[in-house]
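Amino acid chain:
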Amino acid sequence: MPGKTRSHYEAKFGKGLTSDFYTYVKELEGYIAEQGWLLTKKQFNTYWCALWFSQSEAAFGVGMKNPDLVFIYIKDVQGESKGFLPSHIIEYDPDNNQAVYSLEPGKSRTADFAPLLKLAYERRKA
C-alpha cells in the first residue's frame, strides 16, 4: 500500500485533527533526533505513521481516530505500560503488542513517554 498524503488525511479526518497528527509526528521525529537514534523508515498508513529502527517492525508511531483523537502507540512494553500515565492509556493491544495512549494537543508531549520510547527503541533497533 502506498503511503498516504496530507490531503488524504484531511479529507478523512479534517484539517484540525490532521494538523495535530503531523505536529506530533514532527515532535516525535525531533525527540528521536535528540536521542541520536537512527530512524530507518517513516511509513504513513491509513490512520497512523509508523517509525522504524530495523527492517522488521516499527517501534512506535502516532495515529488518529475520528472525531478528535490523536494517539501514540509504543511496541513491546506490556509489563512496563501498566500504571504508566494511567489518565492517558487507551488500551494495551495484545494482537499488535502495543500500548496505546491518547495525546492532548497543546498539553501532551511525546517526551512524556520517554521511558517507554527508550525501551521500545532498544527492543526494536537493528
Summary: The chain has one domain: 6-124. The mean pLDDT is 92.
